[in-house]
């Protein structure tokens, strides 16, 4: 789905993830729903804060297999690619922990160039078994 690149769009995307997971048999209060919803919150917030291009939306894709769930968040900003680091920010920094949270919660995650258009996709997988 496509969402406006705004805090409201990020909130709606996060709520959609939680709702869809519940519909797929992962109730709101189960570990998988809570974990992937938190990952969705971090990735969509980053798409709004760091991947925003005026007049462009971000895209969210949620898929499932027998043993995993995957979320992909795509924005149109090519030059701001997140670092794949497990190091926390220094000192009392007010930001910079979102992807650290994603790296600790997700089974796997990475960044890939957007296919067929400018931008990037940040994806995360959560293994269920």
Structure explained in plain terms:
The protein has 129 residues and is of the alpha+beta class. The chain contains three helices and five strands. It has helices at 7-23, 31-49, 98-105, and strands at residues 2-3, 58-64, 68-75, 108-113, 120-127. The mean pLDDT is 88.
Total number of helices: 3
Strand content: 15-25%
Low-confidence stretches: none
Helix content: 25-40%
Quote the distance from N terminus to C terminus.
Answer: 27 Å
Radius of gyration: 14 Å
Which helices and strands appear, and what pairs or packs with what?
Blueprint: E1 2-3, H1 7-23, H2 31-49, E2 58-64, E3 68-75, H3 98-105, E4 108-113, E5 120-127
Antiparallel strand pairs: 1-2, 2-3, 3-5, 4-5
Helix pairs in contact: 1-2, 2-3
Could you provide a short overview of the structure?
By secondary structure, the protein is α+β, with helices and mostly antiparallel strands.
Relevant terms:
129 residues; globular; 3 helices; single chain; alpha+beta; five-stranded antiparallel beta sheet
């Amino acid at each position: 789905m496509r969402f406006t690149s705004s805090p409201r769009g990020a909130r709606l995307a996060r709520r959609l993830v939680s709702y869809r997971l519940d519909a797929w048999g992962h109730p709101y209060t189960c570990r998988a729903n809570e974990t992937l919803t938190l990952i969705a919150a971090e990735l969509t917030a980053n798409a709004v804060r760091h991947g925003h291009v005026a007049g462009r939306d971000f895209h969210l894709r949620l898929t499932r297999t027998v043993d995993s769930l995957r979320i992909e968040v795509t924005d149109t900003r090519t030059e701001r690619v997140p670092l794949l680091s497990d190091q926390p920010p220094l000192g009392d920094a007010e930001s910079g922990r979102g992807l650290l949270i994603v790296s600790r919660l997700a089974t796997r995650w990475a960044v890939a160039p957007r296919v067929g258009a400018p931008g990037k996709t940040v994806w995360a997988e959560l293994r269920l078994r």
